[in-house]
Amino acid sequence: MEGLRKSFPGVVALDGIDLNVREGEYVVILGPTGAGKTTLLKTIAGLARQDSGHIYFDQQRVDTLMPFQRSVAYLPQNYSLFAHLTVWENVAFGPTVQDWSPRRRDQIVREMLNLVHLSDRRNSLPRELSGGMQQRVALARALATQARILLLDEPLRALDARLRLELRQELRTLAKYLGITTLHVTHDQEEAISVADRIVIIRKGKVVQAGSPKEVYEDPSTPFVSNFIGEANFLQGLLSRVEDGFSVIMLSDGRHVMGRPTNVPVNSQVVLGVKTDFCNVYHGKVEGQNSLTGTVVRSLFTGKRTTLEIQTGQGLLKAKVPSDQSLSEGSEATLRFQPENGIVYAIPNEGLQVALEVE
Amino acid sequence: MPRIKLEGVSKSFGKITALEQVNFEMQDGEYITILGPSGCGKTTLIKIVAGIWTPTEGRVLVDNKDITNTPMEERDLGYVFQNIILFPHMNVKDNAGYSPRVKGLSEKQIEERSSSAMELVGVLEQQGYLPNELSGGAQQKASLARAIASKARLLLLDEPLSALDARVRVELRYALRRLVKDLNLTAIHVTHDQDEAMSVADRVVIMRKGKIVEIGEPTQLYNQPRTLFTANFVGQSNFLEGTVQLVENGNAAVELRGERFLKVANTGFSIGDPVVLAVRPEHLTLSPEERPNTLRSKIEESRFMGPYTRYRLRAETGDELLVDLPTTEAKVADGSSASVHFNPDFILSYTRPSQGLTEALRLE
């Protein structure tokens, strides 16, 4: 994709998207509602036409091709199965329309139903299936056209949270087995991390960062990414000096914290972002480098991990700790982090709060 | 003030039984979540408490008063729906002031109540906006403001966060719990999301197929689930089928497939009992050499998941195992073999279900 732009009255949906996707790659497009994710998929599928910019498949421009000429399987967010057709007939729809020989058609339908574990439900009608099964039928139907590119728009949104965990694994396994190039749109960062080869974070029609799950998680390029993939605490202050390769930041109360080196010049106002996952919590007051002491005001248990909200002199900070290291509400606690986990950013022009907005 | 009790509540729609003999009681000021897969009856249950539906059988009591047949508008409650329902032609402030206005309060009281409700949920700055000018999260906050401005002490939340983005949901669930506790409301919150259920609730009610499976505090449900279904539905678990071969001082030796044994602590089972063992992925560790209580396994895949790395392994028993290691400690490569170590204290044991393990765990 090269310089893709698309506007609707009053809204810029795509604001110059440049993106290369390799053959067989599983790319997740991640962003908040309204970021332009769906428009991007529709433009690739040929269901929306960009105002400017180009799309290439293997160096060949496809801008002028009709959707059915693009060899793209598109699964929209609100797909609908043919209610009066059986599972088998639904999946056979594409091959039938494309006039394949009955032998080739039957073979592919059989294979697809096998892949989505629905061979024994081939004669069922959609309404006789659970939500998860219907989603699998829709996927099999999309794949039965033997397209080279699979476009998935929030494929798991309508399903129960617990079921999503199972199905997202199946999606990746299936795409990798077929070797199909996949673009999967979601607003769910956990889903993105768990299935993607590469995550492309978009916001307000622009690519903010693209990289492997580990890259975007550990080296977020902006405060927004830092807080959107996982959750982050932010400390504002003055970058006072560089010491032993670390940035030293003076906070509003005159105390100092250390973070990674930065390109921002010394004596500028900066913001240090640190993932709540990388914050350790100790009972009571603990002195030392990068220590912030306060009171636990809320403890939110989510099983494996517990989020502690700690009211400190630097505002409300959060730490996501293994549940066996949790502290009770009301107790004094010190939050600490390693300097290498603190990322130092220039203060965003639009202000930190606006820079972090997730909707 | 409101103590709620459901006594033998059942509800049928034609031939379909949505709820079957539901009994439970909640205390004043308690925050309860009702958690279960689609079709488990959780929405039917909250609608019966709201008075939207009448039970086919059983009674609903509030502070020992039977309200089973009291219409919704006469019940003192605030209700927030999954699909955000605001009056589209009214701005946030007028939406928030709706209930005080209907109750015929003075302009001054309406103003006070709506402003205080908007301030509490954080939409005061957006009070002049119409619903369609707001983001999904702000709209749901406005619905919440409208619900609490009624001054009802019972708040019913029907999948209040399901329509929102994942990241917005996380922020709002913190806000919900804070609000309910600060105002000392009694809340029933229906959800299919186990993380959400655990993080906001004092107690969680797990439902399946129209029945209550179990009720417990979040930590109890996660650490000591009483049923296999809960062990799988609330967080994930590994499951291994086996038979008890030896019992000594409360510890058991369980034989798995492939004539392999695991020691399990604190089990009430006897020799010969068919069991299923359940272990959380984060309670397993990988060790390069064989130790007591390990299963030799091959690493099929490892996956970076942020704070932890998830390994999918095939054990010598043929079972698939998931192991979560902190990313900082995760250094084993795909394709290599490793021994998976089971801490006997973290293995839960259950009677092997007669309907089969797959059926006992089925999510839909």
Strand order in the largest sheet of chain A = 7-8-9-3-10-11
Task: Find the biggest chain interface.
Answer: A-B, 42 and 42 residues
Shape of chain B: elongated
Low-confidence runs of at least 5 consecutive residues of chain A:
none
Which structural category fits the helices and strands of chain A?
alpha+beta
Low-pLDDT runs of 5+ residues of chain B are none
Assess the beta-strand content of chain A as a share of residues.
25-35%
Helix percent of chain A reads 10-25%
Secondary structure category of chain B: alpha+beta
SS summary, helix count of chain A: 10
CATH superfamily of the largest domain in chain A: P-loop containing nucleotide triphosphate hydrolases
Q: Domain count of chain A, please report it.
A: 2
SSE succession of chain B: EEEHEEEHHHHEHEHEEHHEEEEEEEEEEH
CATH-derived architecture of the largest domain in chain A? 3-Layer(aba) Sandwich
Q: What oligomeric arrangement do these chains adopt?
A: heterodimer
Rounded to the nearest angstrom, the radius of gyration of chain B is 24 Å
Q: How far apart are the termini of chain B? A: 37 Å
Largest sheet of chain B: 6 strands, mixed
